[in-house]
Specification:
By secondary structure, the chain is α/β, with parallel strands linked by helices. The chain is 37% helix and 14% strand. A hairpin with a 2-residue loop joins β12 and β13.
Length: 387
């Protein structure tokens, strides 16, 4: 096989042909403002409503419980900060966030503290899943909201969200779950009722839709204060003219998402087997509770930045899953929270598979990783050899 191999689908997926086709009419001729009463506006509004119907059907919820945003980050901010603003000044003054959450959740902490809330980070286990005993100890009638992601974006490990929801609801707290990694993912044909979360946030570009579109499920009866003041276009909860093209593409991507289960022989497993035989250190205790699209490893003694540069030169796109600042990869906050050292947390690499990731691709990708390891170790050996 020829050409580059893309194993970074957890970061973003390519836009599907169907989603692109659904967007095109609204990028030029379908220019009407969906808030306008004339024919052009009504057609645009109908496109949004069709997408909302698709998402509500996929989530198994009411049409009015789905609200569109600019992406998963805005959706998560609306869920958490919107709930905090709505309940400001009440007796529930604590908010619990999982220590291994995505930055769009973690970084709401400063805003929440400025609003007068006590923010506590829940410890996680070695697989970056919330420690249920610690959660139980932290929960009482002063907790407003718990935020726990459905599956970790770096490791792919899945949290028992329904169990966490039951624990939160027993003390009257809300539960938000970031389901960006699991919505429409292979083998993840869940409905909102299955998770029992009050607030669920999802994103289009993780499931072969466009960037710039996300959504939030708000259980009927839950009140959030809008973060964007304006015309209240999205059900009086979000100001700003909707991105009709992106929303239409989002809806079509959801509609086209496969409902079948994972194949018996998963290309990810082929890749994992090959790498483990060459000294890779897996960062999950078992692959049974990991998304079938994710494979996360450390290569002891080799930092992720070096590895990614060599892999890129060899034609393989992967990710550290950690933040990049000034061209240098920071230690993964997920691995740090899971108990890894600073050095180990700089070594994590995430390989995430998608629809184009065949067994042939998996085998070739593994061989490229092995070649990269050999090049890096050989270069290191030459540097250590005295002249």
């Amino acid at each position: 096989m020829t050409g580059r191999i893309y194993l970074d689908h957890a970061a973003t997926t390519p836009l599907s042909d169907e989603a692109q086709a659904a967007m095109l009419p609204w990028l030029k001729d379908g220019f009407g403002n969906p808030s306008s009463l004339h024919s052009e506006g009504r057609k645009a509004k109908d496109a949004i409503d069709r997408a909302r119907e698709i998402l509500s059907d996929k989530l198994g919820c009411l049409f009015a419980e789905v609200l569109f945003t600019s992406g998963g980050t805005e959706a998560a901010n609306l869920a958490i900060i919107g709930a905090a603003l709505m309940n400001q000044g009440g007796t529930r003054n604590r908010i619990l966030l999982g220590a291994s959450e995505h930055h769009c959740v973690i970084n709401t902490a400063d805003t929440l503290r400025a609003l007068g809330y006590l923010v506590e980070f829940l410890p996680v286990d070695r697989d970056a899943r919330v420690e249920l005993n610690a959660l139980e100890e932290a929960l009482d009638e002063t907790v407003l909201l718990v935020s726990c992601m459905h599956a970790n974006n770096e490791l792919g490990t899945i949290n028992p969200v329904r169990q966490i929801a039951n624990m939160a609801h027993k003390v009257g707290a809300l539960l938000h779950t970031d389901a960006v990694q699991t919505f429409c993912a292979p083998g993840q044909n869940w409905k909102a009722a299955d998770l029992d979360a009050d607030l669920i946030t999802v994103s289009a570009h993780k499931l072969y839709g466009p960037k710039g579109a996300g959504a939030i499920y708000i259980r009927a009866g839950i009140k959030l204060k809008p973060l964007l003041a304006g015309g209240g276009q999205e059900r009086e909860m979000r100001g700003g003219t909707e991105n009709v093209a992106a929303i239409a593409g989002f809806g079509e991507a959801v509609r086209q998402s496969p409902t079948n289960s994972v194949p018996h022989s998963n290309p990810r497993d082929v890749f994992v087997t090959d790498l483990l035989s060459h000294g890779a250190a897996q960062t999950v205790s078992s692959w049974d509770n990991v998304l079938t699209t994710h494979a996360h490893f450390r290569f002891p003694g080799i930092d992720a930045e070096t590895m990614l540069i060599v892999l890129d030169r060899l034609g393989l796109s992967a990710s550290s899953g950690a933040a990049c600042s000034s061209g240098s990869i920071e230690p993964s906050h997920v691995l740090l929270a899971a108990g890894y050292t600073q050095e180990e947390s700089r070594q994590g690499l995430r390989f995430s598979f998608g629809r184009s990731s065949t067994h042939e691709v998996a085998t070739k990708a593994a061989s490229i990783v092995v070649e990269a390891l050999q090049q890096i170790r050989s270069a290191g050996s030459r540097l250590r050899t005295p002249n």
